[in-house]
């Protein structure tokens, strides 16, 4: 089946809507690509497929081939010019830097949004049809060889989740040494406030009952980065995600603030430009050596994302995530 081309499958889960699962999935995928990995993103949020919008490929359509669907490419494997957006050395540690620039891995996506005749149409489906669609996504998408497949899920523990896990557990293995694809585990997303944490705890219990390993918790919307003065304000409180991770004995991957310039990047395709001296996660964002016109839309998404303040945070999150997957697998 098509999943045989995938080395590691990672679920992105949350027990609550509106916490930014698709945003986190998008940035995990972009960062994995920047670190040289080949990446696929499967969007099974059937009633709210937002992945096409995040990657700026809303107008694309999937192509059919003998045996299934060909996912929509976001970008191919290529070499980007050097960027000075982050000069703390985090990128070079991942081995993706080359003499002529930075080699990135290919990225492709699959979503119901590519199949709908009109993207404004509401998807009003009963459980059995949702279940059938999820299974078809898992069995009929002809993924290329992937290091990682990220699966963006809807909120809660509904029919889609049950169908997803039933199919994955049937066709994958918890051991990377098996010939079957490796179900590495789940990244659980929450926001800091107590009402969100209380709902997301149900997702952690869901993972425990179904035997899905929790790779870690990401606390999204943990503060607001002012685009003018670069100050970070904790408008939704802070620390709830970390406390929840400690309570359940799972890794805490990090806190991600709201960055308006990331929103502008996704919505308008505009390259982020920050005030001099902006500090994110204790690291200063360096100014680019080349002149970047404010409001520039030139370049592919992953290249422009390198200049986003959140890229520095996700570089650390993804590097730790990959190392944890590898270390746990070697010890399995």
UniProtKB/TrEMBL annotation:
Q: Which residues bind ATP?
A: 15-22
The superkingdom of the source organism is: Eukaryota
Q: Which InterPro entries match?
A: Mrp-like_CS, Mrp/NBP35_ATP-bd, NUBP2/Cfd1_eukaryotes, P-loop_NTPase, YlxH/NBP35
Q: What is this protein called?
A: P-loop containing nucleoside triphosphate hydrolase protein
Q: Where is the composition biased (Polar residues)?
A: 80-93
Q: Which GO terms describe its molecular function?
A: 4 iron, 4 sulfur cluster binding; ATP binding; ATP-dependent FeS chaperone activity; hydrolase activity; metal ion binding
Provide the Gene Ontology terms for cellular component. cytosol
Biological process terms from the Gene Ontology for this record are:
iron-sulfur cluster assembly
Q: Where is this region: Disordered?
A: 80-102
Please describe what this protein does.
Component of the cytosolic iron-sulfur (Fe/S) protein assembly (CIA) machinery. Required for maturation of extramitochondrial Fe-S proteins. The NBP35-CFD1 heterotetramer forms a Fe-S scaffold complex, mediating the de novo assembly of an Fe-S cluster and its transfer to target apoproteins.
Q: List the subcellular locations.
A: Cytoplasm
Query: Which keywords does this chain's UniProt record carry?
Result: 4Fe-4S, ATP-binding, Cytoplasm, Hydrolase, Iron, Iron-sulfur, Metal-binding, Nucleotide-binding
| Primary location class | cytoplasm
The record lists [4Fe-4S] cluster as bound by 226, 229
Matching entries from HAMAP family are given as: Mrp_NBP35 (MF_02040), NUBP2 (MF_03039)
Source species of the chain: Massarina eburnea CBS 473.64
Q: Which family does it belong to?
A: Belongs to the Mrp/NBP35 ATP-binding proteins family. NUBP2/CFD1 subfamily.
Q: Which CDD domains match?
A: Mrp_NBP35
């Amino acid at each position: 089946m098509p999943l045989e081309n995938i080395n590691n499958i990672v679920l992105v889960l949350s027990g609550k809507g509106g916490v930014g699962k698709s945003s986190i999935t998008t940035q995990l995928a972009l960062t994995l690509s920047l670190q040289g990995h080949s990446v696929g993103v499967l969007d099974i949020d059937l009633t709210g497929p937002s992945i096409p919008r995040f990657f700026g490929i809303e107008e694309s359509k999937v192509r059919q081939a003998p045996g299934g669907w060909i996912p929509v490419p976001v970008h191919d494997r290529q070499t980007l010019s050097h960027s000075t957006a982050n000069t703390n050395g985090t990128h070079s540690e991942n081995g993706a830097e080359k003499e002529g620039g930075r080699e990135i891995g290919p990225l492709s996506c699959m979503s119901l949004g590519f199949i709908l005749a009109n993207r404004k149409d509401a998807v009003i489906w009963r459980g059995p049809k949702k279940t059938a669609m999820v299974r078809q996504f898992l069995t009929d998408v002809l993924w290329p060889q992937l290091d990682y497949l990220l699966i963006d899920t809807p909120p809660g523990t509904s029919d889609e989740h049950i169908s997803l896990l039933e199919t994955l557990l049937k066709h994958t293995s918890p051991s990377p040494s098996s010939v079957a694809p490796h179900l590495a585990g789940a990244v659980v997303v929450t926001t800091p406030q107590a009402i969100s944490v209380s709902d997301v705890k149900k997702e952690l219990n869901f993972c425990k009952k179904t035997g899905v390993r929790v790779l870690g918790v990401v606390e999204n919307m943990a503060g607001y980065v002012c685009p003018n003065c670069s100050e970070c304000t904790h408008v939704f409180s802070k620390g709830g995600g970390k406390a929840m991770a400690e309570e359940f004995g799972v890794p805490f991957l990090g806190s991600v603030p709201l960055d308006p310039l990331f929103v502008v990047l996704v919505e308008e395709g505009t390259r982020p430009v920050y005030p001099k001296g902006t500090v994110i996660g204790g690291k200063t964002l360096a100014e680019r050596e080349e002149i970047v016109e404010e409001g520039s839309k030139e370049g592919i998404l992953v290249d422009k994302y390198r200049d986003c303040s959140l890229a520095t945070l996700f570089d650390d999150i993804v590097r730790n995530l990959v190392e944890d997957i590898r270390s746990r697998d070697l010890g399995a």
